[in-house]
Amino acid sequence: MPVQFDLERLRETIEHAAHLLPAQGPITAFVHHNTLHAFEDLPFKEAVVKGADTFGCHPYLPEERYRQKLSRGRILPEDVEAVLMEELEDQGDDLLGFFGTRFQLRMAMLAHPLRTGTANELRWIIAETDALTTVREEVPSNLRDQLLAGTTRWIMRDFRNGQARNQKGQRIRASLDPLFELFDKQNIESWSEATWESFSLHALWIACRDGAMQCAVQSKSHRTYTRHRDLLLAKTGSDTDDLVHDVLIRLTAAFLDQGFADWTLPSREAGLYQAFLRLYSDHAGVTDRWTRGLATEARRLIEAGISPLESIDESLQMLGVEEGQEQVFIADTLLALRGYAGMIWQLETRGDRAARQIPPGSLVEFLAVRLILDRTALGYVAREEFDFTGALNTLLPQLRAQENKGTTTSVDQRAFEVFQLAQVVGWLPEHLFRLSADEWTQLFEEIDAFPSLERRCIYHLAFERRYRIQALDAVANHCRRIASGDTAQSPNKATRPSMQVITCIDDREESFRRHLEEVEPACETFGAAGFFAIAMYYRGAADAHFTPLCPVSIKPQQYVVEKTVYSFAKAGQQRRNRRRIIGTVTRHGHNSSRTFAGGWLAALLGSLASVPLVMRIVFPRTTTQLQKFFGDFVLPPVLTNLHLERTQAEPGPEPDQVGYSVTEMAAIVERVLRDIGLTQNLSRMIVLCGHGSSSLNNPHESAYNCGACAGARGGPNARAFAQMANDPRVRELVVANGIPLPDDSVFVGAYHNTCDDSVEFYDLDRLPTTHSSDFEQASDAIQTARGRNAHERCRRFYSAPLSLTDQDALKHVEGRANDLSQARPEYNHATNALCFVGQREWSRNLFLDRRAFLQSYDPAQDDADHSILTRVLQAAIPVCAGINLEYYFSCVDPVGWGAGNKLPHNIAALLGVMDGASSDLRPGLYRQMIEIHEPMRLLFVIETTPAVLLNIMAANEGMDRLVRGSWVQVATVEPESGTIMLFQSGEFVPYYPSTNPLPIRTTSLDWYRGWRDHLGFASISADAVSNDEPVVQHLRKGH
Amino acid sequence: MEVTWEIFVLGLVVIASPLALVAVLGTTALIGKPLSESKTQNWTYATTIIGLIAALAILAMMLADDKRYIPIELGNWVAIPDQHFHFSLKFVFDRLSVPFVILSYVLCGTIGAFTSRYLHREPGYLRFYVCYSFFVLGMIVSSLAGTIEVLFLGWELVGLSSALLVAFFHDRKSPVRNGLRVWSVYRVSDAAFLVAAVALHHLTGGGDFGGLMGIGSWPDGIATLTSEQAMFVGLLLLVAAAGKSALVPFSGWLPRAMEGPTPSSAIFYGALSVHLGAFLLLRISPILELSLILSVTVVAIGLVTAIFASVAARVQTDIKSALAYASLTQVGIIVAEIGLGLRYIALIHIIGHACLRTLQLLRAPTLLHDYQVLENAIGQQDATPTAAGGHWTPTWLRERVYRFASERGHLDSLIDSYVVYPIRRVLLQCDAWERAWTDFLSGTQSRESDAVPVHDDVVEELRL
Question: Which residues of B touch A616 (CB under 8 A)?
């Protein structure tokens, strides 16, 4: 039957369009994604343009921002030249007659802002501003003098005196004559310089307009509107989406609600479409004018038993969507409320992440409802605005016919571009007047071929290039110093390190590790993905549910439970009961304060609320300390342990299925140690440090947690790993597999809170007494390092004075974490730009400014198939690229791709945030989170050879796509020889680093002290004499 | 009544400190030398704390001397003896105004401290504080007002600054639209207020509450109007209060007002602004007593609002709307209490409710965190939500109730369809006539603005 075939195709079309929707799931488990995942199979540069077009967002920062970077030295002129040269390939040297080469023309267009506006705006600028009386301020004085002198000479020679010899001359005369009337022609010889300046500019403007009128270039047509709403909006200024979204947002939020509202949507179980029809089939009370007729329509659909797909088909026909257009139409219609549509699709396809699930096919139902509302609203607005009474399917052709076609670039707009350009390049009116129509056409074609979008692209590449060069030079330089034995900082391989610390690869741990190494030079640090190869469902002693602690791509098999130790079991039970009572009371209080009678009672006692209100806001840190003090009566006893060992064969959530077998544990321990290359010279004290973050007033809290734990806190993973690695049976197996694990090596789990910079240790009661002093030494070093880390972080917070001590800095960050009014508890991954995969010794003591993910990997320990590097990169590249690209897009367009401003955010349906009272759900990152970020693609520096990497890429399609599509930048490094190979246009090419020495400082503090903005690379060397590199001085001075 | 100079000075300080803040923030911004964040913050703290201390001192002196009524007169500005008209600037410290002033200072001060960090590095930082200072001034002036004109002055300042703060994020469409909506409703209520003020003058020859209430200070005053006069003035003031406090049928604006930064929503729509209508009713409560019909109307409107809002609150899926309706429920109850003559209870209720709701709104962004904590404490997710109206109701009724709540009682539709739409139609018709007439006179299309497209073309920066 043909109808069914059509419906099936319709479903496929909808599902295809669904891939364009934001991929962010419920905000309580925030996972960073490439915002443009839908276009990942395209190269980056094409994808951003296509994405920008599809979503109506910016692909790069505004030109102005790049120009600021240029003036601050974050982009150098040579970068722009190099990138432009590369982009133009061999066309750069093409001569464009009078205008010089194409390269020169484009450089001129890049050098200074080319302002433009709507035709009316330009007319205003010409008439009302000093555009025609004063030369642009960017113009160098010699060019200004040249313009004045040249014009004066020309006017005095050819117009003041002398006759027009030919037709062209007469034409020029005819255009200039009206101009003389504006100026005092009689006294031309005594004109002041200002008068000549004004006259020259007027002449130049006339010349440009004259040229623009001769030009035959047709400008590119705009994107055509596919939705009726867009055309209707352009014609009447009435937005049907305002009407439709008002209803649709309320309805969809009620349908998706995860348990906030007291009353659930009636007939929710029957699906969105049925619930909508039933709710709106009733002629209830007074309805909005535009929804009159909706009830009748809903009844008809119910009575005829029309399915959602049939209804969509019907709506498309009613709306007169043309054959072949339905794909674009459906995509654009879904994207009009993309946040909610995306959330429906996420819950539909990844329902395991939600407390309340929704039936499959909900997106189709959503579209069906939306189209019913759309056509109701369209009919209403068309009727109200221009008495449209015809069938709805004739609306689109009618609107198209009346569409304002006057969007082509006007003569004024064209002329104004050349006018600005002429001033900075030094084209004189005389020359411009002499150009032929063909030459003008050529000029405008060239200008059109290099629009703002292209200019921003060039700037962006130049910006990335500058950082890449700085980073690779720093790496080469640093490696050279180390290889030549110029630094005595790293612990000698022959002696045993005092301790070893393994943290997550997270960029926020970079500074923590660096400070730790500075505090305790005899220690070693390592970076591994923060779930430490333990993919588990975990339930803490005070938790209600199991949480998956592993990357989203993995579905855990094993379960782990935290229990109060046996001797405290009774106390634990008591406290759990207290917690439950307090929780239940609070919950009831919370809910009933919003009801009639409960609220009355609550409000009468409400004056008491002023105490926590004032305390929380005026003394956030003290309040938290007080709260902790009282919390001790209800929190689970400190002494707990992990139920980690399984007695049954199969893992599961039941008590005797919980945990791992000894062999599984051994495999995990071995894997992590091999991944990070810690297979020899193990110290007596090995600390594993998971991380997370806690903050108040932050719906996006989970985005600040460990990315390798799917937006949860990674402490339990570190604890579990330490417990596994301390188990003698496990160690026996590990040793048997060839890792010489000394008997006196003890593992300790820890948790680093990246927001308040606290570090807490697990299971210290199990620490052998022989290791007390080792632990104390390690603990002291970590205490000092976290203070220094907090201090380095504070340089980025404008509300933290630069004069803080380490202790004040710790207090400051603790205050931030507990402050209800703090919109920036920490800066999370902002500024991330680098990822090192290799041995720490090559990046150790290199100041990376918290911008680098650091994954430890030792190529010497890898096998012939490079299986270690493969599995390390399989995790690192997609995860780090996902974080980096989400930051990129949220930063280049915080409103379009990001979540906008945090201040009016409003939590909806416990799933996401809206702006203010009612808006679409806002996926992405909010503005306060990315404000210090510098959008650039992540640069991977991997300690391996190109051949190995190409092999690995060939075997891993996903990785290959990201690397070849330039979604990430990749370089390989062989530190001993200092060879760096950079992946560019599909192949590895050698990179030749500069030999300028890196600045050297004795501590990190010496380098970052007193500075808020971005900082360059530096070597940290306790015994070296500081040098100061001229380039860096220039950079520091630049502000 | 004699007022000692100490009290007079303290009273002046209470009123002058927000005025000083307005002057400092406003003038520096006007002359193009806006204050830095930290200076703005310090001025805010200083003026609030000074004002609060002065208010507390007055409270202490009143308690010590057992005074119930302290007028601060700042001159008789207009006096037309023939018409028995006079306009005096007069403030009153009594048992109603002092608690209200202290509440305003405490909550505004807290919000001021909150915002100084919350809006850190926000482009509209100073703009927020300018609106905020006007708001504080408005609250203090209306709380202390001794005449109806002074109350109107404060009332207007509060209304203006509230509407501007709803539209704080003016680069987006919906805050501006909702701000305008709030403003429009306020205009209606202001108009009623103004008419009531004129009527009061006409009836009593002055706007003094003291004269109006005859002998005795609040809450024991006895009004000097007749029952009919009281009903007329009272109903007008009730309309004014209903608009300001979002009572039925004006309730639609309250959830829409949640567009500004979270702290401004908290202070205005959770705490102070929304109670101002109730405060007005409290202030004129002696008038309410005079007319039974009036009292019944006040109770009825209060109860209807409370019931409506508590039903609507149950279906809201976002935290701010839910809190807006929760707030409205209590405001409705407070108004009913006032109608019943329970003045002290209403006052305690206002103060408690304002504190509670401010805290809840400020914590709103922490909702997910708090739910997680509670869920862990209880050990399971909260009980499954109930169907609208309970399980025992028939489906059709449930759907109706749900629809009613979800459409927010159809109140906005009601106003839009039966007030806004007809007025707009009439105006458009007049416009069409005028156009036809001018076209006829000029013999051509007479309006240049017709030719301007609604949306001008896209600028280069956005063109792809």
Answer: 359, 362
Chain A residues within an 8 Å CB radius of B110: 613-614, 617-618
Could you identify the residue written with the tokens 């400008």? A219
Query: How many other β-carbons are positioned within 10 Å of the β-carbon of residue A541?
Result: 18
- Could you tell me the two tokens for A359? 């039936």
* Cβ neighbours of B307 in A, within 8 Å: 596
**Nearest chain A CA: its distance from B232 CA (Å):** 30
Measured between CB atoms, which of A62, A266, A583 is closest to B374? Answer: A583
Residue A504 marked as a ligand binder: yes
Nearest by CB to A580, from B116, B168, B378: name it. B378
Q: Find the closest chain B residue to A452 by CA distance.
A: B461
Question: CA B405, CA B387: separation in Å to the nearest integer?
Answer: 13
Q: Do B320 and A903 touch (CB under 8 A)?
A: no
Candidates A250, A585, A613, A704, partner chain B, best to mutate (most B CBs within 10 A): A613
Q: Where are chain A's structural domains?
A: 111-220+411-450, 228-402, 497-565+664-829, 575-631
Test the A interface: residue of B115, B166, B317 with most A CBs within 10 Å = B317
Question: What is the sign of the dihedral through the CA atoms of A924, A925, A927 and A930?
Answer: negative
Task: Return the axis-axis angle of helices B319-339 and B343-362, rounded to nearest 10°.
Answer: 170
Q: How far apart are CA B347 and CA B333, in angstroms?
A: 12
Query: Distance between alpha carbon A773 and the CA centroid of its chain, in Å?
Result: 44
In angstroms, what CA-CA distances link B234 with A429, A443, B194, B226?
76, 76, 12, 12
A61 close to A383: Cβ distance less than 8 angstroms: no
Question: Which ranges of A503-643 does DSSP label H, i.e. alpha helix?
Answer: 508-519, 569-592, 596-604, 610-618, 620-631
List, in sequence order, the alpha helices (H) in A822-935: 840-843, 867-892, 927-930
Contact B253, B182 (CB under 8 A): yes
Length of chain A, in residues:
1039
The Cα–Cα gap between B402 and A261 comes to: 12
Q: Show the tokens assigned to A496.
A: 């045993």
Provide the terminal-to-terminal Cα distance of chain A, rounded to the nearest Å: 71
Let me know: does B236 contact B196? Beta carbons within 8 Å: yes
Q: What is the DSSP string of A437-461?
A: HHHHHHHHHHHHTS-HHHHHHHHHH
Q: Which of B333, B156, B237 is nearest to A595 (CA)?
A: B333
B117 neighbourhood in chain A, CB within 8 Å: 799, 819, 821-823
CA distance A726 to chain B (A): 30
Out of B381, B406, B413, the one facing A286 most closely (by C-beta) is B413
pLDDT, one tens digit for every residue, chain B (464 residues): 567 888 899 999 999 999 999 999 999 989 989 899 999 999 999 999 999 999 999 999 999 988 888 888 887 777 777 766 677 888 999 889 999 999 999 999 999 999 999 999 998 899 999 999 999 999 999 999 988 889 999 999 999 999 999 999 998 999 999 999 999 999 999 999 999 988 888 887 777 776 666 556 676 767 777 888 889 999 999 999 999 999 989 999 999 999 989 888 887 777 889 999 999 999 888 888 888 999 999 999 999 999 999 999 999 999 999 999 999 999 999 999 999 999 999 999 999 999 999 988 888 888 888 888 888 887 765 555 566 666 677 888 888 889 999 999 889 999 999 999 999 999 999 999 999 999 999 888 888 777 666 555 444 444 33
Rounded Cα–Cα distance for residues A613 and B178 (Å): 28
Note the maximum CA span of chain A. 112
The phi-psi region of residue B47 (left if phi > 0; otherwise alpha if psi is between -120 and 50; otherwise beta) is: alpha
State phi, psi for A287 to the nearest 5 degrees.
-110, 165
Domain range annotation of chain B: 5-366, 407-448
Q: Which of A343, A543, A610 to mutate to test the interface with B (most CBs of B within 10 A)?
A: A610
